[in-house]
Amino acid sequence: MDSFARHRLTPADFVPVLEYDGEVALGEVDESFWETLKKLEPFGSGNPTPVFVARQAKLVQPPRILKDKHVKLKMVAAVKDGQWQKAHGAIGWRMAERSAKESLVLGDILDVAFSVDYNDHPDFGGLQLTLQDFARIGTEVAVADATGR
Question: What average pLDDT does the segment 4-13 reach?
């Protein structure tokens, strides 16, 4: 089997591919969007949590490292009709090292893959995006929608 694999596999076969359920404009992720997602629960092995991709999200604050492991980003959707959209907070669990390696800075434009969560904390609760992946615009990332495209 080792010989077969060595002759058939290429480095591209080892690039992870993130599958997502659909693209959504970051500005469309609001309380109504969350309420619609909740109707699809419960999520688990037979019904995985939906993952979405938003294109051209702009970092409006420098990335913040939490507990030396996690990263918190604040992003807005691309300009629509000359107006910036509402800012969204996103948390990337165990992504602090990667964000430092990518040298993310204020003003970077990213494509982001995320799931939508709700934080019940009384001081800073509300909709929260949980990052699955991110790529600075112009960086190639292997992603596929639910159909494998």
Answer: 89
